[in-house]
Structure formats: C-alpha cells, structure tokens
Amino acid sequence: MHAIEKLLAEKAGKHQVATGEIVNCDVDIAGINDLYLQTVRSFYEMGGEKVFDADKIVMFFDHYAPCATITQAENHKQFRKFCFEQGIEKLMDIDQGVCHQVLADKGWVHPGEIVVVTDSHTTTHGAFGAFGTGVGATDLATIMITGKLWFMVPEIFRINLVGKLQPGVFAKDIILHIIGDLGADYGVYKAVEFAGPVVNGLSISERMCMCNMSTEMGCKTSYIQPDAVTMEYLHNCVARPYKIYETDTDFQYAAELTYDVSKIRAQVAAPSSVDNVFELDKYAGTPVDEAYLGSCTGGRLQDLAVAAQILQGRHIPKTTRMIVVPASKKVMEDAMELGYIQTLMQAGATITAPGCAACLGVHQGMLAGGEVCISSTNRNFPGRMGHVDGRIFLASPAAVAASALEGKITDPAVYLKTGDCGNGR
Amino acid sequence: MVMKTKVRGKAFVFGKNIDTDQIYPGRFVEYTDVEDIKKYAMYGADESFVKNFDPGDIIVAGTNFGCGSSREHAAITLKAVGAGAVLAESFGRIFFRNAINLGVPVITCSEITKIIAEGDEVEVDIEAGIIKNLTTGATAAAVPMSPYIMNILQSGGIKPMIKAMQETKKSKNR
Q1: Nearest to A161 by CA among A149, A150, A174, A173
Q2: Which positions fall inside the Aconitase A/isopropylmalate dehydratase small subunit swivel domain (chain B) (predicted)?
Q3: Cβ–Cβ under 8 Å, residues A400 and A307
Q4: Which end of chain B is more exposed for a tag (fewer CB within 10 A), N or C?
Q5: Are the Cβ atoms of A145 and B67 closer than 8 angstroms?
C-alpha cells in the first residue's frame, strides 16, 4: 500500500483499503474559513447541537480580513458567536493570516494526519506528509457533528523531479510547467506524490507551493514523504505525537512521470486558465498594471525575501503598482525583523494586512477591466481578481518582483544570476 | 425531499474547465441568503444565464466542470435556479461532493458534449444513467455512480441523512 492508503486505512479503522473504495475516516483537523457561514447553517440544519471536539476545529478569518463590507462583518460576527458558544478556542481572527500558512506556522499539521478545510488549497499540507483536502460547507458541517468524513481512496500517481534548478527558477515554475504539460484535469479524483532528488532539496516553503498548486490539476490531495527537511521544520513546533507512514516498495502507481527541472525556465500561466502555461519569455515585455505578491501559494517569507533581494535599492515605475500581502502574521513579523517589508515599501510596494486579499477578487487590489496583473497566486480564471476582463499571469514571486521593477513581464534570472538567493532552501 | 428519478429540460451548454468563479464569482460569496445567491448563477460565464434558465433545465459541460474553489455557493446557486441535472465529461471533485450533498444530480458522461447542443431538449434517467437528446434522438450512457453516492442523492442530499442519524441518536439517549 501507499503511505496515503495506510493513513486512510488507519483513520477508517481498517487494515487495508483499495483504490476506489469509500472509507469513513476520523478527521484530525477541521478548518472553516470565513467565506462559508453556510458551514454553521448546515451544522444546525442537520440537527447539530455541540461540535464533536472543539479542540480539533479551527476557524480562520482570512478571506475577508479585515472586512470590506457590512455583509462580511455580519458573517464574522456570527462566526465569533458560534466559536464562543461551541467553545472553539482556535479562532484565528483577522490578524492571523491565510489558513494554510497559519496551520504551518502554529505547527498544528502533523505527518500522517487528515486535515480538511473548506478551502481547495488544503492540498498544501502534503508538504508535511499529511492528507490535506478541501471540501465544501456541508461536508465540513458533517465533520463538526460526527468527527468523520467519507473519502474515496484515490488512484495515486508519482511525479519524480530530477536535474538542477536554474537561477531564477523556483518550485512555482516547476509546478506551473507540470500543470501546463498535464492539463487542469489530469489529477481529478487522484492523489499526487512528488518525489526525487529535487524535491528533497526544496525548502518547506517551496514544497508547500507545489502541493498547494496540485489542486489546480484537479488533485484531491498531494504527498511528499517526510524527510530531514520536514523533521527540521517540525522539530520546534509540533504539539503531539505523530506517525509517519511509508509506501511499500512494491506499490504500483497509477502513473509515474519524470521531469528534468534543468530544462525548465521561468514560466507563466497566461489568461485565463492555470494550464495555459508558457515560458515567460513568450510574454516578456507585456506592460504590467499590477504586480501581486501574496497568498497561500506565494506569500511566504522566502517569497518576500527574493522580492526584497530583487527590489533592494530600486524603485518600481509609476505605471505599475505592487501589492504585497504576507501570508500570515508570522510571515509579516519575520519579514519586518529581516528588513524585507521596509525594502519593499521603499521600492514603492503597498503592503496590506495578512490574508487572502485580492487573490479571490474580494478586496485589497482588485483589477479594472483590461488591466494586466502578474501574480504569485494560484488562479487566473476570468474575474478571479476583479473585472472579468482583467488579465492575470501567474508566475513565481521572483518574476512578480522583477516585473514590478521593470513595469513589464520580466524574467527574474537577470537579477538573480550573481545573487545568493537560493531556489532551494 | 427525495430525488426525482427522471428530469427533462432545455440544455445550456458550456465548455471545459468551467471553474467556480464562473459558476459563482468570488465577490458574491459573502451572500448567505439563497434568494441572493440564486441571482448570480453562472454569472462569471454568462450574465444573462439566470434570465433565460427555467427550473428543470439542464447544464451541459466539457471536462472538469466546477474546478477551482471549494465554495458551496456554486452548488447552492445551481440548486436554487432549479437545475434538473448537471451533465459533464468530468467534474472538479469538491464541486461534485458539494452538489451531491445538496441533492443536485451531477452526472458524468464522456460523450455528453458530442451529443447535446445548446437549446436541445434533454431527458435524463438518473438512476438508470441514461441520457436522451429528445431533439436529435441521440442517447448516451452515464458513468455509473457508486451506490454510496447514489444513496446520498436518493435521500435528497446529506442533510436529511445526518439529521435522521442525529435524531435516532437522541431518541436512543432518551
């Protein structure tokens, strides 16, 4: 069996599971984000009175932090009341940041656990060897009542990464390249494992980026076998014992794919789908109205670090605005401590409160019709960041910073060749 | 409310990778009242959709319908406008779960866009998994649903099931 299957089997109280089987599993972390008051509604609609275990439930105020409309504020108000009444102490209020980064910062995700959040990017937690998956409001309400959720045991495919990353090329470029190659629906209902020497050399931040984006090819979950990098990260923050599952050597993957990352250059996903991927060069020189650095995909400390490195002592042009949204409070505090925030502000960037911000087209940096945005986020669907005619190019944080600096889509390699900015750790 | 086993309506055809921002744009997610949510069905793909769509009509799409965000609003809005069924070559998995949980028939059929064009009259036998294009006479078979999922659908979604479970538990405890 695969590590994912062993994990699902144990959480379902079984010795064995098979692909396609439906299992009812205990959930270790159930996260709700502030977009979905329906979760609370469904809880009561289904006869819920008291949540199964308040300590396993985390409430995140990230998408609307801080609220831009009265309706959003009313929703937050009702959520706060629910948390208070149910004794949910893990209320991550508007100061905390994006759910996935907060879970990582707090050390609440452990290998071998099932993490379910009402957010499609919950695949992120494969970076820690956990089974992370997104669900809707009613599924989450089911967990709040019963502590369990059904899953179909997925087919599992493995992506092996070999070669050596070139300067200016990051995990974001690798995953965009893969999604472009395989298509937005390749992984629907399936799980992906990332493996190989390149993955072992990636930081937790870069691993989170790849696992996060796996949902953009439809994957139900993602997995990276915990190794020394994972252990080092977890060492200081884990709160309870955990179990690391190992895949049997004779396990048969549904498919095995190998990519030589040496051949990958800076990538962009051009409007308006995440699998519409090209070498950045194809669009180099396209004028940029907004450069957006943030989100659970590309708003971590390492992402701000590379942007600060590129923008240090320089200034963006008047024709371009740059919006920086640290993924979490901790990211922002660390970035201040290290001077990145100051550097970015001096370069002309606008810093906003940690959260999801304009990534989902709700507030803090919306696009007008016809505007071009280069973004370190995860989706470039029509209307995703504002006007339906806004054109979003997804790229690495370094490409966002270089493009902000030049006012047009720019390969960051030129700013990084002589630098010491690792695309590894 | 138990599922209708047969539905019949006019087809509204969309392409592939119709994401949840097209089904229900992010800026309307703050609405929690179904009367508000139903105003913006498919708004990101076709602003006039709600005006033209009658209860019982059927949505047809290519691969990966409902990919993207976990917003249940995408399923709520299609249920609220009375979609008889959603037929696609494949579905984004969270949307699929959300729709089943709400009792919206989401039916996978690999040839669906080949046999149905915009405006065709379509009949779907949900339990048998048979799709008929009444305009052209073409038929196609759906990918069979697992009994577990069909059971949720037949119960009118997950809510009545969990509710019944809760009530049984409570009466036992009494």
Answers
A1: A174
A2: 18-105
A3: yes
A4: C
A5: no
Question: Which residues in chain B come in under a pLDDT of 70?
Answer: 1-2, 174
Q: Scanning the structure block, which residue is given the tokens 């699929």?
A: B96
Shortest CA gap A68–chain B (Å): 10
Q: What is the pLDDT of residues A97-151, one digit of tens each?
A: 999 999 999 999 999 999 999 999 999 999 999 999 999 999 999 999 999 999 9
Residue type at B16?
A: K
A22: nearest CA partner in chain B: B148
**Nearest-angstrom CA–CA distance, A9 and B64:** 28
Domain segments of chain B as ranges: 6-173
Phi, psi of A104 (to 5 degrees): -70, -45
Q: Which one, of B162, B3, B127, lies nearest residue A142 by Cα?
A: B162
Q: What is the pLDDT along chain A (425 residues), one digit of tens a residue?
A: 999 999 999 999 999 999 999 999 999 999 999 999 999 999 999 999 999 999 999 999 999 999 999 999 999 999 999 999 999 999 999 999 999 999 999 999 999 999 999 999 999 999 999 999 999 999 999 999 999 999 999 999 999 999 999 999 999 999 999 999 999 999 999 999 999 999 999 999 999 999 999 999 999 999 999 999 999 999 877 778 899 999 999 999 999 999 999 999 999 999 999 999 999 999 999 999 999 999 999 999 999 999 999 999 999 999 999 999 999 999 999 999 999 999 999 999 999 999 999 999 989 999 999 999 999 999 999 999 999 999 999 999 999 999 999 999 999 999 997 544 444 43
**String of DSSP letters for A65-93:** SSP-SHHHHHHHHHHHHHHHHHT---EE-
Whether residue B80 contacts residue B53, with contact meaning beta carbons closer than 8 Å, is answered with no
Q: How far, CA to CA in Å, does B130 sit from each of B57, B113, B118?
A: 16, 15, 19
Cβ contact, residue pair A185, B90, below 8 Å: yes
Asked if residue B134 lies in contact with residue B127, where contact means CB atoms within 8 angstroms, the answer is no
DSSP string, B33-76: SHHHHGGGTTTTT-TTHHHHPPTT-EEEE-TTBTBS---THHHH
Domains defined along chain A, listed by start? 3-259 (3.30.499.10), 268-416 (3.30.499.10)
Arch. (CATH architecture) of B6-173: Alpha-Beta Barrel (3.20)
Residues whose CB is less than 8 angstroms from the CB of residue A181 and which lie 6 or more positions away in sequence, other chains included:
A259, A277
Q: Does B57 touch chain A (CB under 8 A)?
A: no
Please report the ipTM that was assigned to this predicted complex: 0.94
In angstroms, what CA-CA distances link A283 with A270, A279, A280, A286, B34? 9, 8, 6, 6, 42
- Chain B interface mutation, best of A32, A46, A143, A377, highest count of B Cβ atoms under 10 Å: A46
